[in-house]
């Protein structure tokens, strides 16, 4: 095995960008939504600059992390010597030619630390509370066909857990509640991505489309936020707005 194939087998990829710069994608995850940590490596004339162009913190913010200059300064104090995090949230390190590989390694270590800190600053969502609301609404209608904590295998061979299900004539309908933060008006995007992944795995088996249902806590969301989540989820499952549950509850009353 040569060095190139070894690096590839470890999950790294390297893409040229021009002017001698490259984009490096690692197998490391920035968050629980599956995004891989990456960096840009550029020749500065007297050495090399490895940077994320602010993508790490921008991604954290897209998942609901609440950032501030005070929190950025908190992260700055945890970084190794040579690592920099500026006020715009750009993470970088400068090295000479001999230290570029070490610099990339230190960069990824810092990026994971940065992502972990940002994850802790996401708004707290009450997933259990919303799940209880979903159960309270549907279980009386479904009656004895209501199920809790059920599992299924997807096309990947992985076992997946779903909080609820309803036995229907065409098979089990897997239900995945997805909560939102009512104070910020934001979806819990981590749960959106997880649900999309699970539903996509089930969809790949070729099962009846009616067996995959996501229920979105949309009461506090603006139209754009709700629309973005529903558009993504609709690629893998049916999406029901909980705010309209009185319109669709009866579907679970009939096992046909």
Please summarize what this structure is.
The protein has 256 residues and is an alpha+beta fold. The protein has two domains: 3-120, no CATH class; 127-252, Trna Endonuclease, Chain: A, domain 1 (3-Layer(aba) Sandwich), CATH 3.40.1350.
Please describe what this structure looks like.
- The protein has helices at 3-9, 55-62, 69-76, 100-120, 127-142, 189-203, 223-233, 245-248, and strands at 13-18, 21-29, 36-43, 48-51, 83-85, 91-95, 146-153, 159-168, 171-178, 180-181, 186-187, 212-216, 238-241.
- 35% of the residues lie in helices and 29% in strands.
- The chain starts with a helix and ends in an 8-residue tail after the last helix.
- The chain has a 6-stranded antiparallel sheet.
- It folds into 2 domains: 3-120, no CATH class; 127-252, 3-Layer(aba) Sandwich (Trna Endonuclease, Chain: A, domain 1).
- The mean pLDDT is 83.
- Strand 5 and strand 6 form a beta hairpin.
Q: Please tell me what the overall shape is.
A: elongated
Low-confidence stretches: none
- Rg over C-alpha atoms, rounded to the nearest angstrom: 22 Å
CATH topology of the largest domain: Trna Endonuclease, Chain: A, domain 1
Name of the CATH class of the largest domain? Alpha Beta
The tally of beta strands, per DSSP, is: 13
What percent of residues adopt helix (DSSP H or I)?
Answer: 25-40%
Instruction: Give the amount of beta strand, in percent.
Output: 25-35%
Task: Tell me the series of helices and strands, N- to C-terminal.
Answer: HEEEEHHEEHHEEEEEHEHEH
Q: Let me know the average pLDDT.
A: 83
Quaternary structure type: single chain
Q: What's the domain count? A: 2
Characterize the biggest β-sheet: 6 strands, antiparallel
Question: From the coordinates shown, what is the CATH architecture of the largest domain?
Answer: 3-Layer(aba) Sandwich
Euclidean distance between termini CA atoms: 57 Å
Structural class: alpha+beta
Instruction: Give the strand order, joined by hyphens, for the main sheet.
Output: 1-2-3-4-6-5
How many alpha or pi helices? Answer: 8
